[in-house]
Amino acid sequence: MSDTLEPIAPGLWTDIAEPQLIGGQRPDGEIVFPMPEGDAAEGLEPVTLSRTGTLWSWTRQDFRPKSPPYEGPEEFEPFLLGYVELPGEVIVETRIVDATLEELKLGMPMELAIVPFDDRRSTFAFRPEKSA
Amino acid sequence: MRDVYIIGAGIHPFGRTEGRSGRDQGVFAVRQALADTGLDWADIECAYGGSSAAGSADIMVNELGLTGLPFINVANGCATGGSALAAARNAVAAGEYDIALAVGFDKHERGAFNAKPKEWGLPGWYGQTGMMLTTQFFALKLQRYMQLHGISRETLGRVAEKSFRNGEKTDHAWRRSPIDLETILHAPVVNDPLTKYMFCSPAEGGVALIVASEKKVRALGADAVKIASIAVRTRPPGSFEVFAPSISVERGGAPTTLASQGAFETAGIGPEDIDVAQLQDTESGAEIMHMAENGFCADGEQEAWLAEGRTEIDGVLPVNTDGGCIACGEPIGASGLRQVYENVVQLCGRGGERQVPNMPKTAYSHVYGAPGLSAVAILER
User: Which in A68, A75, B55, B322 has the greatest CB count within 10 A?
Assistant: First the structure.
């Protein structure tokens, strides 16, 4: 399904079968996400990030954020979000899917997924890693 | 640098005041502070002030008087009030002026603050996907802290319960009815683990403080409280702040820790010497985490502190004696100065029902603002 959706913004992830988020690496090695644009990109190199990491923190959004800027469906469903630590790289803020609040635990393994945002666009998210 | 004293304090009640603009609430507070000192507006030599949503502070001269004084507008997020006081104090400490004003006011729309990505140097998708909310940041910072340091939901509830209890005794507070622990814990969740009664709300209000040199204090015979130190700091590398699509894996310090250490160093005292503290409590977890970031306890000790009532008005370290942001609401421009106002009230023994016993000698205030800056002021009597 996500194949037919356009990304919510260009340059957030690589458009391949196993997509990766794209960060920016500073000359000192520090990585930021997303890759900055314009003058802020000066001196930074785009770098693809690990598809897996561990849960750093989380919460659930229980009320519909104001629009603008929020562009989610009018019919609001609470959603999970949090920070996932990509080891040795960066800690990214992300939606969390395929989980309930009660299942989330500090340090649990997570993997990247590209998921529908609305009927037209996709966004990135992380979900608990399926045990092999 | 010369010593600087607070000689006058005024406040417009916080909450909702229909028919009175934010700036008018600031003017109200200035007039009250002037009355407190017996000074006229024409005696004020310079002024620093700001609001986030209620216009430029310098327009107050239209109501207060066109004396030609230098009036600098301050905009430092939730730390606007603390920053205005720092600037007023510095102007007097440097010897350029003998009497200065710090003022802050605000009037916000109802509902959560609604930041626009572009104004914060962030990409549009960050707001479009619903990840740019201050309430989320507080919940995310707190969730991890609770897991790492064993803080229970009950302790979050205890903080809010104390806030409403203290607010009941505070004439400038907005929420003036106690709410019991069970109601707080079982209220609708805003962002897990925080319920609606654990959050402060955007509000209205105004606060004005008049500061003066020692020479002027003597000449006026004023009742004065000394500003022992004041420190404003922005975020260091590796800190975790509001509106962060990513954070560094190299964990670093926090602006609050830097401001606190700076203020204690200048004052020449430590956390154990503080008699009463007003700590930024945008939600009840913030008060808990700020107890540690400001050096008053170790991470995790808050569980025992709250259970044993150590931050109650009659405890070893009373925290947010006027009910803090949770009971007073948060008018961004005025909030940091409200804390200092409350400390002046406490040090002067004018707290009435909420007065900290045994005449406190030292008082501490801390405000934290987006996108990661803190202001700390230590007062001495």
Answer: B322
Q: ipTM of the assembly?
A: 0.95
Compare CB distances from B116 to A58, A69, A79 and report the shortest one's residue.
A69
Tell me which DSSP letter residue A130 carries: P
Which residue from A72, A83, A95 is facing B247, i.e. has the nearest CB? A83
d(CA B56, nearest CA chain A) in Å: 25
Quote the CA–CA distance of B61 and B244 in Å, as a whole number. Answer: 38
Q: Which residues contact B80 (CB under 8 A, 6 or more apart)?
A: B50, B51, B52, B74, B104, B332, B333, B335, B336, B369
In this model, does residue A132 exceed pLDDT 70?
Answer: no
Q: Give the count of beta carbons closer than 10 Å to the beta carbon of residue A31.
A: 22
> What pairs with residue A57 in β-bridges?
A83
Q: What is the mean pLDDT of each run of 10 residues along chain B (381 residues)?
A: 96 96 98 97 98 95 98 89 94 97 94 79 95 95 98 98 98 97 98 97 96 97 96 94 95 95 98 98 98 98 98 98 97 95 98 97 94 94 95
Q: How far is CA B206 from CA A28, A83, B73, B91, in A?
A: 45, 37, 15, 22
Q: How far is B142 from chain A (nearest CA, A)?
A: 9
Distance from CA of A60 to the nearest CA of B (A): 5
What's the pTM?
0.95
